Amino acid sequence: MTITDPLDLLDIDSLLSDEERQIRETVARFVAEHVRPHVAEWFEAGTFPRELAPELGKLGVLGMHLDGYGCAGTSAVAYGLACLELEAGDSGLRSFVSVQGSLAMFSIWKYGSEEQKLQWLPRMAAGEAIGCFGLTEPDFGSDPAGMRTRAVRDGDDWILNGSKMWITNGSIADVATVWARTEEGVRGFLVPRGTPGFTTHTIKQKLSLRASVTGELVLDEVRLPDSARLPEARGLGAPLSCLGEARFGIVFGSTGAALDSLRAAIAYATTRVQFGKPIAAFQLTQEKLANMAVDLNTAALLALHLGRLKDAGRVKPHQISVGKLNNVRRALAIARECRTILGGSGITLEYSPLRHANNLESVLTYEGTSEIHTLVIGEALTGHAAYR
After folding, report:
1. Boundary of a domain, candidates 104, 125, 146
2. One Pfam match, by short name (predicted)?
3. Range of the domain at 278
4. Could you report the per-residue pLDDT of 231-247, keeping only the tens digit for each?
5. What pLDDT is attached to residue 387?
């Protein structure tokens, strides 16, 4: 009796190039060898192994969609497929790669000076230096325009004061891209670890994204030379463009979490015997599996379509919002439903679905809450912004 893998249901592989399939398979092998054997321990301990960063650098996924400076320069689809396999391991792993490449590195690559790019990007691509992205504040998450962090000129220098919250990689980063309000509008600054007045604190007691480092950044009279300013970043559109890059990775990544959950549920259902036969042979279980597989493949096709649009230079912000809103919601529902198939066993870290579900609660919120993405889509449909 043949068992079809959930992602083979519609032969989506036939829509990928040989190179795209090879990249996906290479990342999948890395996750199988370096992540799956340990991720339950990382999740339970609430740690992310910093020593994994150079290995991810050797794999070539850090800033892989950027050109030059040690970056691979792959297509958006290839990057998305890598995110899918990384998040099939754990959302915390994909978050590390997304923040490193699509936020910290992308902000330097797109808005930095040549000196800044040469100083940071090759080391970050190799995983020798870790970056973070300081935009969200304790009182300003969905409304970054209200940020209170300030940068004031003092001769040839800048003085920064403020704080940032919920910053992935924040307390292990070697450099932070910090966004601050100035007299000329929002500007970005590179703040290296060890700069006087710059401190970080790890956020503990998380119920989600436990295999990921989340921190607070505090800037108290931090003095930076003008060479630390990202010269091409002017206005709030600069950090928002970086967020668009990270959201794209989530469209694929969340699909990976759903895929791994469904694979775990199918494997369990085909071996768990009740009432004299595997629970996979019962109609109610098959209905759950069929509905989830349809949702998974729909999400995968949407992600691939958006990736093709991005590679063609035609993707629009509201389209990324459609992908993020739809795919994270579907992935979260799939992970929860898979847990029901696992029964009591599903509440242990021996199985991945509930871990994925817990992680996806964070993914649903960060890089734009589901409410904000709903309003982005609503504005595209009506022409009216309903944020205020």
Report:
1. 125
2. Acyl-CoA_dh_N
3. 237-382
4. 999 999 999 999 999 99
5. 85
Domain co-membership, 105 together with 16: yes
367 is catalytic: yes
In order of 44, 173, 193, 236, 258, the CA distances from 215 in angstroms are: 18, 10, 13, 22, 27
Residue 7's nearest CA partner among 295, 355, 278 is 295
Q: What is the CATH number of the domain that holds 155?
A: 2.40.110.10
CA torsion sign for 250, 107, 30, 306 is: positive
Phi, psi of 383 (to 5 degrees): 85, 5
**Structural domain contains residue 196:** yes
pLDDT in tens, 30-77: 999 999 999 999 999 999 999 999 999 999 999 999 999 999 999 999
Indicate the residue among 177, 199, 228 that finishes a domain.
228
**DSSP assigned state of 378:** H
Give the C-alpha separation, 150 to 161, whole Å.
Answer: 5
Separation CA 59–CA 307 (nearest Å): 21
Which regions of the chain are under pLDDT 50? none
| Cβ neighbours around 121 below 10 Å, total | 24
- Taking the C-alpha atoms of residue 192 and residue 129, their distance in angstroms, rounded to an integer, is 10
Q: Considering its fold, how many domains does the chain have in total? A: 3
Catalytic residue among 33, 114, 367, 371: 367
Paired strand residues for 200:
217
193 assigned to some structural domain: yes
Q: Are residues 199 and 250 in the same domain?
A: no
What's the CATH number where 367 sits?
A: 1.20.140.10
How far apart (Å, rounded) are the C-alpha atoms in residues 114 and 182?
23
Dihedral sign from CA coordinates of 317, 242, 333, 278: positive
374 occurs within a structural domain: yes
Residue pair 341/264 in contact (Cβ under 8 Å)? The answer is no
Taking the chain, what is the end-to-end CA distance rounded to the nearest angstrom?
57
Classify residue 229 by its DSSP letter.
B
Alpha-carbon span 61 to 164, nearest angstrom: 26
Pull the structure tokens for residue 277: 């036969």
Residue-wise pLDDT for 159-209, tens only, equals: 999 999 999 999 999 999 999 999 999 999 999 999 999 999 999 999 999
**Do both 343 and 247 map to the same domain?**
yes
